[in-house]
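Example 9 (inverse folding). The structure is encoded as follows.
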């Protein structure tokens, strides 16, 4: 974020503040020769100095050190004095010339302080008393004089004021705002003084020739002896809370009418906690522990009662035998009828009656299997025709990479507000930035970067940037052609070099000390102004400094704001993008070596850098993903094959060609889905290309394993038609159930408003559906071909070659045909899980992990760190680290008011402004009040208000601002042409008299006529409130003649935002504030900052995630219930899926993975993959025969082995490869989350689920 803020080129506001210091020169001249002044005896009616004696070299008038009696003015002069200095009556100690000069100079103070009349009156009285008080000698003592042309002029004096006077004077002015620069007026008129002594010391400091400020030393003193005759100034001080002088709450928050805001301060949410001794736990955590312990006790009590009841009837079977193993025969096998289980469980249980849907499925799959086995070529050709036709749509394939199109729904509040802001005001400018920093060594702090060598390096860098040229569409583009120019002359470059106006010769003349001087006086020294005539806040161009000690800064921050345009065709910012890419190349090739040679570090960025790096990232890990797929394919080919008794038969029994064909079918389903949606104009995303193949491959491989293993399990005596049809009858319903549950879950998730998530769900639903169709048609036909090949002894991948198997080399019965994994599941895994003690431990541990995951999931933080989505070797990694380390200013924040009614009949004006006579609960007053609590409001400063400045600019008190010629045309201030070059403006008058305004407010016509004048008025010393540059794009004048301003913005800043949670919380706080203000003021107000559009998703990401998860789970439950007609089975599947998702979220919290759209997509996808772990085993259990333990072992032996080899191991080997991806996003959101999903799914599907069923 550009530290200078949007439209940072304010005109010469500082020059006006500087001129305030010159007021003292109106009454205290200097001389060429110094001499000591003699003490004037204090007496009422006597002066310490009187009259103008000479001028010094810079033209400032010099007063005479003249101890004379006060003079009685004539009636006209007396009335003039009374108009400016109402406390001065009777005789005076100033001449007409002195008063005229005073009157001319004080006009420069008025624009700063007129918003708070009490402060302005007190401030003017301080100089009025010093200039014209008839009792001047009582509190003014000339301590030093100089002689010019034989005349003694003042060179130094003591100004006696009481401590109470000084404190009350400071208190009346300390909070007065200078909204144009989002700061306090005290920063300009007092160099940010924190006490009255600091303020008066700043006012009284002696300035060098040709520098603004007092020409002599004024020492404000409160110490004196009673015998000295001194009577310190103790005139009336008006409190800023005095109702008669009407200071606003923004300028006087201590006022009694302002102490109670109608809008309560925004508070951070405090979580409930329970304290037990030294331990403190959240209420939710404590509740979960209590619930878990209660359930555990209930479960133990139930087990004991059940065991006691069975013991009483003599029906108890031991939990385990003396060997801690199930009973087994001599061969080590565990036949079903020999397992010791409770009687209730050991009785033979008939399989569940299939539902009507399952019955029809079985009939269909038997007929379908026979047809495919008889006509495999026809089925293969027809089934492949569908995805091939869909792939034709790939000719219209496009990838959407624009973040705002991926993560922001078209109807979102942030998108609408951004469009409104861009179209009515102006798009936020583009940012090109360099950060140079020193490095710490040996554990010590980084040294200061502010030295001569580094400044010279900056000038060299600046020259290279200025000289950079790039060709775009036949034209040459330089920074000057595209940069932001608030006053249409110079670029608003934010750099420490601006203290030298980007001129190396000025640096050679004044050196590094001038920069250090400007760090403290940037608001009050004209020589510190930038080339675009604006003060440069050192906190925006320096970094790594403690407190406000800018000289110890360890980093330079250079920002080049570039004009931005509303994007409609994508080419509007073509020149800027071309220059930005050349800028990045320049930094890499030339500037970085220069910086490193000085033992400094360099980080950099341009507006287009993130987009360019994201595009580079999309191809950076293509090789890694391809390798991952190759590894999975190799494993698939291995796991589908048989283990023959002779190694030569391995070439026949292997399934490499079948596995490759299955992977091709998976890819065809993905391409077909992408082709269909491309044909209807839906753009793809990088997530689709990275995630959906993984998802469909997981589902497809599982189905491939299940189908192939089911065919292998059929008796060898059956012909191929019977084996195919029986296999489909066995596993077809579970494949259909799982696939349709996944398809409908993804389809329903397409209601998600986030485009990336919605498009992913659409593509995934169609891809899984097409893959299912290809699995039960084309892949079954390929199985037929492969089994025919194997029966004929033809070599895999080379079917033209044949190996004649020797006699007895075939399969050795069921045990030989069963894979090692299947035998393990049947003989080891299943029996172990049948022990009651094991069941108790499994249920206790898994339920406990679920409760722990619920507690952990509440700690998931929304967001997506920018460093994660970028390649690890991206130059932006260092840049974002440096921003968090060095930036002291947050992003600009705008409060936009829609349809502001400025007519006299409307109350909108006083509901918004923050000067005198504005409502105490006005928008700007409340913003100022919120800035006092930045830790909760995230608002750093009061808002810059064009309305306040316009009303002050029009005010008759600001007589140097709104002026008109005799003919009624606009007359600029006297220090601007043509007034500065001639006496053309001598007859100019203020636009209005007090009587022309209604309580200081203009009429509708006056407002409408003078607003364009204000927006075209240049700020200067005589009037710092001109709106040109500062407010050129702060309001939309389209149709404003009707009395309605469609859009107007009031700029402030967020506090520095370093974490994703800071961005989210700051946006939430700003929206809450705007919502409350809109309701309170009955106006349409919304906040806008450039990052809102990207972070809005995180305000509702929890809602989005929960909605998607619940919709998916609910859909799967309904589908399972319809297909199985078993509420119990459907509920078991639902519970296990919910536990898998909760555990995955718990792992995310442990690993610090943030919740965002990518994570939501992965959570939705995890449900789809988790279905494969549950449905097949549950269906196999339901159709099995025997007692529960027997059926569980049967399910594990058949489906468990297929699920483990088809999903767990396949995904495991593929996921591990992603660990070596170059992009952190792959490692975090694909490797870590996928690995966690595979492990959690395996544990629940093959350990917890068999125990539950």
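The amino acid assigned to each position is listed next.
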């Amino acid at each position: 974020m550009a530290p200078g803020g949007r439209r940072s080129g304010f005109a010469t506001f500082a020059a006006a503040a500087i001129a305030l210091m010159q007021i003292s020169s109106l009454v205290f001249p200097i001389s060429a020769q110094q001499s000591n002044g003699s003490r004037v005896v204090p007496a009422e009616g006597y002066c310490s100095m009187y009259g103008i004696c000479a001028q010094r070299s810079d033209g400032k008038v010099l007063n005479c050190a003249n101890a004379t009696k006060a003079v009685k003015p004539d009636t006209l002069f007396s009335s003039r004095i009374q108009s400016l200095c109402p406390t001065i009556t009777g005789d005076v100690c100033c001449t007409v010339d002195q008063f005229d000069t005073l009157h001319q100079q004080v006009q420069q103070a008025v624009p700063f302080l007129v918003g708070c009349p009490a402060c302005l009156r007190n401030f003017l009285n301080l100089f009025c008393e010093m200039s014209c008080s008839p009792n001047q000698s009582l509190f003014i003592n000339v301590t030093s004089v100089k002689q010019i042309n034989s005349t003694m002029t003042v060179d130094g004096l003591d100004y006696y004021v009481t401590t109470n006077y000084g404190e009350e004077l400071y208190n009346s002015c300390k909070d007065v705002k200078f909204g144009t620069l989002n700061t306090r007026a005290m920063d300009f008129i007092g160099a940010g003084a924190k006490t009255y002594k600091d303020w008066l010391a700043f006012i009284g400091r002696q300035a060098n020739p040709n520098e603004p400020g007092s020409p002599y030393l004024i020492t404000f003193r409160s110490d004196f002896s009673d015998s000295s005759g001194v009577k310190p100034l103790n005139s009336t001080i008006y409190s800023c809370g005095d109702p008669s002088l009407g200071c606003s709450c923004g300028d006087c928050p201590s006022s009694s009418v302002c102490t109670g805001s109608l809008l309560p301060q925004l508070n951070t949410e405090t979580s409930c906690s329970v304290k037990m001794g030294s331990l403190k736990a959240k209420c939710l955590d404590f509740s979960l522990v209590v619930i878990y312990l209660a359930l555990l006790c209930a479960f133990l009590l139930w087990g004991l009662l059940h065991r006691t009841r069975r013991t009483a009837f003599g029906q108890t079977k031991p939990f385990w035998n003396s060997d801690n193993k199930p009973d087994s025969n001599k061969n080590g096998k565990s036949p079903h009828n020999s397992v010791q289980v409770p009687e209730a469980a050991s009785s033979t249980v008939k399989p569940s009656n299939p539902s009507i849907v399952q019955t029809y499925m079985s009939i269909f799959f038997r007929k379908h299997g026979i047809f495919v086995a008889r006509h495999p070529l026809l089925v293969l050709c027809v089934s492949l025709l569908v995805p091939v036709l869909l792939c034709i749509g790939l000719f219209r394939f496009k990838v959407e990479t624009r973040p705002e199109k991926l993560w922001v729904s078209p109807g979102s509040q942030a998108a609408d507000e951004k469009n409104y802001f861009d179209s009515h005001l102006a798009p936020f400018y583009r940012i090109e930035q360099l950060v140079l920093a020193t490095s710490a060594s040996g554990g010590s702090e980084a040294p200061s970067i502010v030295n001569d060598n580094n400044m010279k390096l900056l000038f060299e860098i600046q020259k290279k940037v200025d000289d950079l040229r790039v060709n775009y569409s036949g034209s040459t583009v330089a920074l000057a052609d595209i940069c932001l120019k608030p006053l249409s002359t110079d670029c608003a470059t934010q750099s420490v070099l601006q203290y030298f106006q980007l001129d190396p010769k000025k640096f050679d003349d004044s050196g590094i000390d001038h920069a250090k001087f400007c760090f403290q006086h940037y608001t009050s020294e004209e020589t510190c102004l930038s080339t675009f005539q604006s003060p440069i806040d050192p906190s925006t161009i320096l970094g790594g400094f403690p407190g406000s000690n800018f000289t110890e800064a360890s980093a330079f921050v250079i920002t080049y704001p570039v004009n931005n345009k509303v994007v409609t065709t994508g080419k509007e910012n073509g020149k800027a993008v071309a220059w930005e890419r050349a800028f990045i190349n320049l930094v890499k090739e030339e500037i970085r070596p220069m910086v490193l040679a000085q033992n400094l570090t360099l980080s950099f960025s341009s507006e287009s850098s993130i987009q360019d790096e994201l595009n580079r990232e999309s191809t950076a890990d293509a090789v890694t993903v391809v390798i991952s797929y190759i590894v999975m394919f190799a494993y698939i080919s291995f796991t589908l094959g048989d283990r023959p008794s002779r190694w030569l038969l391995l070439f026949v029994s292997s399934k490499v060609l079948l596995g490759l064909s299955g992977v091709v079918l998976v890819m065809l389903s993905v391409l077909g889905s992408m082709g269909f949606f491309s044909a209807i104009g839906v753009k793809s995303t990088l997530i689709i290309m990275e995630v959906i193949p993984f998802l469909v491959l997981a589902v497809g491989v599982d189905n491939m394993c299940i189908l192939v293993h089911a065919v292998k399990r059929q008796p060898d005596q059956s012909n191929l038609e019977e084996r195919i049809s029986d296999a489909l009858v066995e596993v077809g319903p579970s494949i259909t159930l799982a696939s349709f549950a996944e398809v409908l879950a993804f389809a329903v998730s397409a209601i998600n408003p986030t485009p990336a998530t919605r498009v992913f769900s659409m593509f995934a639903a169609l891809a899984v559906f097409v893959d299912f169709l290809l699995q039960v048609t084309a892949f079954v036909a390929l199985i037929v071909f492969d089994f025919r090949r194997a029966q004929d002894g033809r070599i895999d991948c080379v079917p033209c070659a044949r190996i004649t198997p020797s006699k007895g080399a075939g399969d050795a019965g069921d045990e030989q045909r069963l894979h090692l994994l299947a035998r393990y599941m049947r003989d080891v895994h299943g029996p172990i899980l049948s022990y009651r003690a094991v069941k108790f431990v499994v249920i206790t541990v898994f339920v406990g992990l679920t409760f722990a995951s619920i507690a952990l999931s509440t700690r998931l933080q929304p967001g997506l760190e920018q460093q994660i989505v970028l390649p690890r070797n991206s130059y932006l990694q260092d840049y974002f680290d440096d921003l968090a380390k060095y930036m002291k200013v947050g992003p600009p924040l705008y409060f936009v008011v829609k349809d502001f009614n400025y007519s006299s009949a409307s109350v909108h004006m006083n509901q918004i402004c923050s000067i005198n006579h504005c409502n105490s609960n006005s928008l700007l007053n409340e913003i100022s009040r919120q800035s006092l609590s930045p830790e909760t409001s995230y608002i750093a400063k009061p808002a810059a208000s064009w309305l306040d400045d316009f009303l002050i600019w029009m005010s008759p008190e600001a007589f140097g601002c709104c002026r008109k010629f005799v003919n009624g045309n606009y007359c600029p201030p006297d220090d601007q042409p043509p007034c500065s070059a001639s006496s053309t403006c001598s007859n100019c008058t203020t636009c209005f008299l007090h009587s022309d305004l209604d309580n200081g407010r203009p009429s509708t016509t006056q407002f409408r006529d003078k607003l364009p004048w204000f927006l075209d008025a240049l700020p200067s010393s005589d009037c710092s409130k001109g709106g040109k540059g500062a407010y050129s794009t702060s309001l939309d004048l389209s149709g404003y003649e009707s009395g309605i301003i469609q859009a107007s913005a009031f700029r402030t800043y967020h506090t520095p935002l370093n974490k994703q949670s800071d961005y989210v919380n700051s946006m939430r706080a700003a929206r809450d504030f705007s919502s409350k203000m809109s309701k309170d003021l009955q106006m349409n107000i919304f906040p806008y900052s450039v990052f809102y559009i990207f972070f809005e998703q995180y305000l509702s990401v929890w809602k989005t995630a929960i909605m998607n998860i619940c919709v998916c789970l609910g859909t799967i439950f309904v589908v399972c219930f319809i297909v199985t007609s078993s509420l119990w089975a459907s509920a078991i599947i639902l519970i296990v899926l919910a536990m898998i998702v909760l555990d995955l979220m718990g792992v995310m919290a442990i690993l610090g993975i943030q919740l965002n759209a990518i994570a939501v997509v992965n959570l939705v996808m995890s449900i789809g993959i988790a279905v494969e772990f549950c449905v097949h085993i549950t269906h196999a259990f339901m159709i099995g025969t025997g007692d529960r333990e027997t059926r569980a072992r049967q399910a594990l032996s058949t489906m468990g082995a297929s699920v483990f080899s088809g999903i767990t191991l396949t995904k495991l080997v593929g996921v591990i490869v992603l660990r070596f991806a170059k992009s952190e996003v792959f490692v975090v959101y694909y490797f870590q989350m996928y690995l966690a999903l595979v492990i959690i799914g395996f544990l629940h599907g093959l350990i917890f689920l068999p125990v539950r069923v």
